[in-house]
Amino acid sequence: MRTILITLGFVLIAANAYAISRYDPTRMSCRNVQATVAGDGAVLLRYRSPRNPSLVLYDRYVASARFCARDEMRARSYVPSADLNACPVYKCKRVEHDRRRLFLFR
Fold this sequence. Notes:
extended
């Protein structure tokens, strides 16, 4: 029983280490949004859709490519902020491989 409790404690500590912060970029200036992403490394940004305010949009935004998976790369994206309609940030996007081009470069 004691071993189970100790193991459970370590699992909970490890789960907290991988927690990601969530922010509403529409309540921050663009500069603050970019600084928050740079400071945290990876964050979730949640905001209401400009086309349909009843929908909440969200995605994971990153400071550098090291926060992306191996088959992903960092790509520019835009989110609304308090002072801009399109604040530039980065998120991870899956890389699409073209087999014909890979064949040409062999």
